[in-house]
Amino acid sequence: MFRRTFWFTAGAAAGVWATTKVNRKLKQLTPESLAAQAANKAVEAGHRLKDFALDIRDNMAEREAQLGDALGLNEPVDPELPAQRRFAVIENAFEAKQPKYLENTQYSIDNRNEDH
Questions:
Q1: Residue 1: band (very low, low, confident or very high) from pLDDT cuts 50, 70, 90
Q2: 54 in any annotated domain
Q3: 92 within domain boundaries
Q4: What pLDDT sits at residue 105?
Q5: Which domain holds residue 43?
Q6: Can you give the pLDDT at residue 11?
C-alpha cells in the first residue's frame, strides 16, 4: 500500500514539475516576452558600447598627452613670444545642406517666393 502511495505521489510531483517547467518556457516564448528580452539585450549592448567609447576616449587623451610631452607641446610658453593663434573654420551650414541639383537654379531652398 505504501509503495503505491509513494509512486502515485512521485508521479504527481513529476507531473506538476513538468507542467510548471513547460508553462514557464511557453511564457518566455510569447511575442511580448521576446520583445522585452530583445530590448534588454539592446540596452545592455548600448551600455557596453558606451563603456568601450569612454575607454577609448580616456586612452586617446592619455596618448595625446604623452605625444604632447614627447614633442614639447605641453611646455610653458615663453612670455616674450605672442600667444598661439587658433582659427576656427566656420562654414555656412545652410549652404552645406543644400542639394547639388539646386545650386545653380532659381528654385534654391533659400530663394522663396516672399510676395505671395
A1: confident
A2: yes
A3: no
A4: 56
A5: 26-73
A6: 95
For residue 27, what are the contacts with CB-CB under 8 A and spacing of at least 6?
A: 33
Q: Using CA atoms, how far apart are residues 111 and 100, in angstroms rounded to an integer?
A: 15
Domain membership of residue 45 (yes or no) is yes
Site of grid cell 587658433: 86
One-letter-per-residue 3-state SS of 39-60: HHHHHHHHHHHHHHHHHHHHHH
User: Which bin fits 72, alpha (ψ -120 to 50), beta or left (φ > 0)?
Assistant: left
Domain count, the chain: 1
Tens digits of residue pLDDT in 78-91: 667 666 666 665 55
Average pLDDT (2-27) is 94
Strand, coil or helix: what is 69?
helix
CB 78 within 8 A of CB 89: no
CB 104 within 8 A of CB 97: no
> Distances in Å between the alpha carbon of 92 and those of 10, 61, 98?
80, 30, 10
Q: For residue 113, is pLDDT > 90?
A: no
**What is the rounded average pLDDT for all residues in the chain?**
81
